[in-house]
Amino acid sequence: MSKGSVERAPEFHIDKIDLSALSAFITSHKATDDKGRYLHWDQLKWRVPRADAKNIWLAVKFHRAMQEKVITITDEKNIPFSYSITHSMEAKLHQVIKIAGGSIGAIADNPVSKNIQQKFLVSSLVMEEAITSAQLEGASTTREVAKKMLEEERDPIDEDERMILNNFFLLRHAERQSKNDLTVDLILDFHKIATIKTTENNVVPGEFRQNDDIYVEDTTGEIAHQPPCYNQIPTRLQMLCDFANTDHSGSNGGQFIAPVIKAIILHFMIGYEHPFRDGNGRTARALFYWFMLKSDYELFRYVSISKLLKDDPKGYGLSYMYTEKDQNDLTYFIDFQLDIILSAFDELQRYLQQKTEEFNQVLTLLENSGYNHSLNFVQKDIIKKGTKEPGRIFTAKEIASSYDVSENTARTYLTKLVSLKLLLETKDGRTKLYLAPSDLMQRLKSDRT
Question: Which positions make up the binding site for ATP?
Answer without folding.
Answer: 216-225, 278-285
